[in-house]
Specification:
This protein is mainly α and 155 residues long. It has eight helices and no strands. The relative contact order is 0.11.
Length: 155
Amino acid sequence: MRPVVLSPAERTELTRLVRTGSHPAQQVRRARILLELDENDPDRDGPVPLQQVVAERVGVHVDTVMKTSRVYAERGGDVQATITRKKRATPPVEPIVTGEVEARLVKLACSAPPEGYARWSLRLLEKHVALVDDIPSLDHSTIGRVLKKRNCVLI
């Protein structure tokens, strides 16, 4: 088990987080774990409790206690980095609609409709986009979202 040593200011901050306001449950759980594992706790008599005891007190599995103490050590004792969720560097799936695709779609929607049509519709744009090579095939609802986002109205 890795030691958790909190300063009085960090301890006060975590106590406030646990007791007040509406914070994500995961943050509250991790804060409670850090408070239980704190070696500088002035109210504790004796050594830091075992991970099993901490897990029972907090209401989590022992693995959660182990992972939280490991993350605390890995992040150099940074309390905020330990309790908050790590932001992904890249999204799990690359977006199909990039800025260039949006620009081409808006340009197409602002152009004259094909012969025989008075105006563009989302379904007509969908069919036309499927025929264009440099734009990926998009659903009419996706096309509608892109146009709405760019305040482009089909009239």
